[in-house]
Amino acid sequence: MIGITALVPAEVIYSCGESALDLNNFVPNSKLEPEDKLCAWTAIWRELVLRGEVRIDKLVVVAGGDCYNALVEGEKIELAGKPTHYFTYPFDGNIEVMKEQLEALAEFLGGFSSEAFDEVAELKKLALEVHEMRCNGEVGAEQGFLIEVSGSDLMGSLEKYRSALEAVEEKEVDYEYRVALLGIPPIYPDFHAFLQELGLHVVFDEMPFEFIRHSGKSIREVARSYASYTFAGHIKHRLRFLESQLRRHHVDAIIHFQQFACHHKLEDRLLRDYLNNKLGYPYITIEADLPSATPQQARLRLEAFAERLREVW
Question: 0.70 exceeded by the pTM?
Answer without folding.
Answer: yes
